[in-house]
Amino acid sequence: MSPPAPLDVDLVAVTDTTAVPVPDPLTVNGISAWRAKTAKMPTGVAAACSSDMFKSPICYTKPKAKRFDHRFSLEAKSRKPSTLKTAARYLKNPGLISLGGGLPSPEYFPFEHLDIKVPTPPGFSPEATRESGTVLRAGKHDIQDGSSTFGLIYIADLEIALNYGQATGAAQLLRFITEHTELIHKPPYSDWQCTMTAGSTYAWDTTLRLLCERGDYIIMEEYTFASAAETAFPLGLKAVGIAMDEQGLLPESMDDILSNWDEKARGARKPFVLYTIPTGQNPTGATQSAERRRAVYKIAQKHDVIIVEDEPYYFLQMQPYVGEDAEPVPPPATHEDFIKSLTPSFLSMDVDGRVVRLESFSKVVSPGTRVGWIVASEQIIERFIRNFETSSQNPSGISQIALFKLLDEHWGHSGYLDWLINLRMSYTARRDSLVHACEKHLPREIAHWVAPAAGMFHWIEIDWHKHPGIAAGKTHAQIEEEIFLSAVEAGVLLSRGSWFKPDHDTIEEKMFFRATFAAASSEKIDEAISRFAGSLRSQFGL
Amino acid sequence: MSPPAPLDVDLVAVTDTTAVPVPDPLTVNGISAWRAKTAKMPTGVAAACSSDMFKSPICYTKPKAKRFDHRFSLEAKSRKPSTLKTAARYLKNPGLISLGGGLPSPEYFPFEHLDIKVPTPPGFSPEATRESGTVLRAGKHDIQDGSSTFGLIYIADLEIALNYGQATGAAQLLRFITEHTELIHKPPYSDWQCTMTAGSTYAWDTTLRLLCERGDYIIMEEYTFASAAETAFPLGLKAVGIAMDEQGLLPESMDDILSNWDEKARGARKPFVLYTIPTGQNPTGATQSAERRRAVYKIAQKHDVIIVEDEPYYFLQMQPYVGEDAEPVPPPATHEDFIKSLTPSFLSMDVDGRVVRLESFSKVVSPGTRVGWIVASEQIIERFIRNFETSSQNPSGISQIALFKLLDEHWGHSGYLDWLINLRMSYTARRDSLVHACEKHLPREIAHWVAPAAGMFHWIEIDWHKHPGIAAGKTHAQIEEEIFLSAVEAGVLLSRGSWFKPDHDTIEEKMFFRATFAAASSEKIDEAISRFAGSLRSQFGL
Description:
Two copies of one chain form a homodimer. By secondary structure, chain A is α/β, with parallel strands linked by helices. Chain A is 35% helix and 13% strand. The first copy, chain A, has a domain at 430-540: Aspartate Aminotransferase, domain 1 (Alpha-Beta Complex). In chain A, the strands form four sheets. The first copy, chain A, has a seven-stranded mixed β-sheet, with helices on both faces. In chain A, strands 13-14-17-16 form a four-stranded antiparallel β-sheet, with helices on one face. A two-stranded antiparallel sheet of chain A has the order 2-3. Strand 1 of chain A pairs parallel with strand 15 of chain B, so a sheet runs across the interface.
């Protein structure tokens, strides 16, 4: 454990743009021209960087984010820049020999090169990749050797990836992430920033420590990702659950709870952190429409709430569900069509800078990279960076260079969007298999569902009041357990709805089971749902 | 963000061993025989594992660790096993189809294989690696394809490495780490465990949250790694500094402070967490002798202190310093000699299970892996795992498989020890360059040092009372700053001793500068020290 070279972010100077015409929005095709105009990519070990080095001029025509000083925890407010950082300014002195930092020499990194074999667009399938994939190489000294020996220009190599890095992650991948964020979300304020994270779970843990104090409540959907709630509880936090419909959380319910918050009765101040999974919600599969998000955002403004949008499933938005016999909807014809087809994020409507967007490569590239990122206002991101500097430091450099080689050097934004469209079509087929199986097998007298528009999960409501156990005085928990165990007995494992209920002060009125279509084959899915149907029929005496 | 398959550690059954002869200690050469007797390596996605699967029989002949329930923080005590974990037990049912977990399908991981080119022992130099290094390949489905198609047995592949993992890290690398720990440290209690971490900085942050409450003091060396103190401060912790000599922290000073702790005057309970860097301490370069460690351990027992030993420099223990003209000491002839040459760790004398050992690959393989590990008692490790499950989850799977391929599959323990011996000789040469340069250039009237026995750092004391600024009434801080800036002016960057002082309640009596020999070449080191000497002479009018 040794200090990385400190972060010393030089913000790009923002000139007064009121007199000049508004610049064009960034487009996929416009990126290479814009890159040519920006400053050279920093290629030193643990080089400082920030999204401001990569955002296009249109960003700076927008107003700045509001300040959220009053929302930071005591822990967050106490964080100071690293002491060892103070020495970094001298590193720019020409000819200076540094005996200051504790970075090991790359001559002792036992990796000479790293190769990855990856898909060559449009051949995204495993078969195509095996046959015609591309091998990408990261050498130890590519930056130095490339330009000196081969006249090639490299901006990343193992010498850098294997050493200490900045909390933001390396500039090379941060540029891709920043551009991607601008292309997709076009945040409506100027001083947004990205920082990489050691995965979204960790980002959420850090977010709670940044904003909350022991004893606080946080706002969650009535049903939510169980682990997200379990990240919060040991910190002494409680959850208040917001009612949902098939579009997810209900803004009126949130307004109602916050407007009538009784500090004395609750023993806690009015909550101001909303954790939401707006797209393909886990576990309900619900996706908030644009209109719904705008309504939620308004309530957040009214009560000065910070919205934490956890969006691992954003690019698992699928084609509309059309039923088994209907003609499938053709895939988006262009990248622009694809981007337009996506439900706008909270980030895209965040005029105040009150959204903390948690991004993840887990569902679109792979969970094992343990690389995610956060988008939020500069003020908030700065506090995250101060935290990461003395905790995770930075995501794995090996993961970062593998992602950089794949996403930036090989695919580029265009290839990555092609990959995401391909993923969309694959998940559509998987979702369809599961919904078809439900239509085919499940007893409609007691089972109800809506085909999910995004994500990995299908949420099946069971009309438990029709269960014979009711007459015997059995509770919700008992009947849910019986149905669950009977399904296991029949050879299918689903998740119980009650596992996902974070608010322990309220009673569950409905009963749900969650099924995922992410992993099993369509044959197995059909068989699994058929087994579940059988167990339901026997449970309910149908 | 989605739940990894839950941890469900099946501890190896420990039979009563009192009647049977004591098993032999584990040796490098005995490992393959022992492996052949243990259970099959689990190769499922996010397969549960623990060090108990890999420890040799002698471990179980030892008494169990003490319990430390009274030392856990409220946060640590509040952690519960994951709700979604409860479903895992059913995954063992034969024929069960799981629609339960949210793991993505490997068919969407866009990596077909990963190759790394690494040194072939004994050719460890970068030149030898380029010429005769070995290329190691991890394919996507090696486990399945290897055994089915080629009759080869693989225990790791990308299908697993790229998916979600357990908080402990994957069994494959955990086995190597566990065996390495047993070979080197032979912990004297039975129920020790290892868990991987997303780097030692993160492990330290987590340790503080596991043991301390806001308002507590922690015990640190008088001078310590600045970032370690800065990890603690925002959590509302203060540091009490223990006096040091050239062997590091003084047990009498620690005993004195703890015996006379005045809760009222300090406004805090008596501290019980010691953070120490026993080997090649940062910044002082001091290494505690075995005797010193035993004395410190006794004081820790007396006051029921938990010792957190942060040991990134353990394998940077060097050959004895013999001066420029003396015959160099030959390297250890055998692995056994090498292991014996190492100063015993606190872990190796930890009869109570009160040591939390933070381990790192940063200084011996590379910092960019962001993989470290912790060794501690089962009770303590279990609390770490509960924390990691809802925060970092697991270190990067790509880093893990690269380390596994290199350390286990290719080098094995024998090759890794050769690598560490090679590193020892390299750091010895670097240390010698710096000490020689000091002997050659620095004015002995005002500069004093001891050749470090381990680590990356050289600690130079400057007799600041001889500085002409004293007559002008200048303070310690002012004179330190003048010397520092004068060196920068002369073209050399060192670190100021005051940066490393965590205890803000005491006054600094001496003055130090820290120089590292880790990164610069021997020519540059000589030039840098020559510049520093010049700036000192002009500062002190010599």
